[in-house]
Each structure stands twice: as structure tokens, then as C-alpha cells.
């Protein structure tokens, strides 16, 4: 079990060169705590954060933020946007992202000591010696008043 800070499971899964992050959640397992952790991580490292209300097409903001060397984090309520008419946007955001973090309820149902599970898909980075790799991480989480615990399934007593 590791608490958010240096060396936790989420930071390890994210890596360091993330530019576009998609956070997916649902009503049963809200993922807003992931936004808080990403904001805390950015500000603790001396970075800055900007919040946008989209009035232009999404690609407009994506191009501008990339030119400014900024990261972009998008929160998607999957159970709302998974309808057929919105599926194109959801697929596009997943495609352009470097990292997809999905908060979901436990497949076994509710538990007092575990709030849900996170799946993190890190699409990796290009290097001279290997093609773009994709790594998938899965672990459980428990949101507490002053942080979040991340741990592998079955490792917490």
C-alpha cells in the first residue's frame, strides 16, 4: 500500500513525459480525486495549471497547449458520454492521449476498505531502440481525508 507522494503506484504508472491525460469515471466511482492528485503533482514540481471551459473545438486547445509545452487533463464521465452519439469524441480523446486513467467500482461489489479500482494505460514514449510501447496498470484505491492509498488487489489486509 502506498500513499500519494513520491514513489506511489499512480506516479509510477504515469511516468514523467505525459502530455495529454484522459481520466474516465462513472457515477459509482467518481474520478475527481485523480484530478486533485495530478494538480498537486504539477504544482509541487513548480509547474502551473490552467482550467478551460471549452468554447472552441477541442483540437484548437490541444494544438495551443502542445505549442506552449503544457499538459492537458480531460475528465470524462464515461457513463454519460458513452452514448452512441458521443462515442466519436470519447474514442478521439482516448486516441490522442498519452495516458488514460479509468476509475471504476470493484467488480466484486462494495467494500469498506476499498473504494474502487484504477486502470492506467500508459502508451509509452518513442525511443531510438524500441517502438512505442503500451503498458497497462491495474490497482485498487481508497480515498482518505488527506490523501489516497493505492495498492495491488489482494495486497491489503
Please outline the major beta sheet. 7 strands, mixed
Strand content: 25-35%
Gyration radius, in Å: 16 Å
* Backbone structural class: alpha/beta
Element pattern in H and E: EHEHHEHHEEEE
The termini sit apart by 10 Å
Global morphology: globular
User: Roughly what is the average pLDDT, rounded to an integer?
Assistant: 76
User: Quick one: how many beta strands?
Assistant: 7
How many domains?
1
Separate helix tally: 5
Unreliable segments of 5+ consecutive residues? 1-7, 126-130
Could you give the order of strands across the largest sheet?
Answer: 1-7-6-5-4-2-3
The helix fraction, in percent, is 25-40%
Could you characterize what this model shows?
27% of the residues lie in helices and 27% in strands. It contains five helices and seven strands. The protein starts with a strand and ends in a 6-residue tail after the last strand. The longest helix has 13 residues, at 32-44. The protein has one domain (2-151).
Amino acid at each position: 500500500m502506498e500513499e500519494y507522494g513520491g514513489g506511489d503506484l499512480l506516479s509510477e504508472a504515469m511516468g514523467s513525459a505525459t502530455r495529454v491525460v484522459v481520466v474516465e469515471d462513472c457515477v459509482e466511482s467518481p474520478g475527481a480525486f485523480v484530478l486533485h492528485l495530478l494538480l498537486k503533482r504539477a504544482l509541487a514540481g513548480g509547474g502551473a495549471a490552467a482550467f478551460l471551459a471549452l468554447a472552441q473545438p477541442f483540437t484548437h486547445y490541444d494544438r495551443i497547449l502542445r505549442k506552449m509545452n503544457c499538459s492537458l487533463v480531460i475528465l470524462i464521465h464515461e457513463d454519460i458520454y458513452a452514448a452512441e452519439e458521443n462515442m466519436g469524441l470519447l474514442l478521439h480523446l482516448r486516441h490522442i492521449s498519452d495516458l488514460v486513467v479509468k476509475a471504476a467500482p470493484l467488480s466484486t461489489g462494495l467494500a469498506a476498505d476499498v473504494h474502487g479500482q484504477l486502470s492506467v494505460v500508459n502508451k509509452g514514449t518513442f525511443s531510438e531502440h524500441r517502438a512505442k510501447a503500451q503498458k497497462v496498470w491495474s490497482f485498487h484505491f481508497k480515498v482518505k481525508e488527506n490523501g489516497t492509498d493505492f495498492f495491488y488487489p489482494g495486497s491489503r489486509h
